[in-house]
Amino acid sequence: MATSISATGFKGGFGTSFNGSWGTSIVGEDYAMLVRSVPSHVSVAKPVKSPPMMKNVNEGKGLFAPIVVITRQVVGKKRFNQLRGKAIALHSQVITEFCKSIGADAKQRQGLIRLAKKNGERLGFLA
C-alpha cells in the first residue's frame, strides 16, 4: 500500500490530496527497498587531533625577551634550558640565604621565590 501526497497551486493556498493514514506501515516492495538503502554497518572515524603545540605564552613579552629568544636560537634549546635551570636554581639559593639572614620562615621564602618568578615573566626572562 503506497501513500501519495500532492500539492497544487501555491498562490491561492495548498490544495492537497492525501491517500492513506499517518499510521500506515511500510510493507512489501517499499520495505525491501528501504532495507537495501540503509547500510548494515556504520563506522565512525575518530577525529584527527594535531599534537599539542608547546608554545611559551611569554614569547616576545618583556624588556629582555628579545635577548632571551636570540640566545635560545644561538645556543640551542637543550643547552639554553640547562643554563636557565642553573640560573633559576642559583637565584633560589640566593633568596634562601637572604631569608636565613633576615630570619624569614619557609612560607615567606616561598612567597619571595614566586615573586621572583612573576617578575622574571614580566621582564621577559622566561620568554
From TrEMBL:
GO CC annotation, single:
chloroplast
- A GO molecular function held by the record: electron transfer activity
Signal peptide interval: none
GO BP terms in the entry: photosynthetic electron transport in photosystem I; response to high light intensity
Q: What is this protein called?
A: Proton gradient regulation 5
Q: What is the native source organism of this protein?
A: Salix udensis
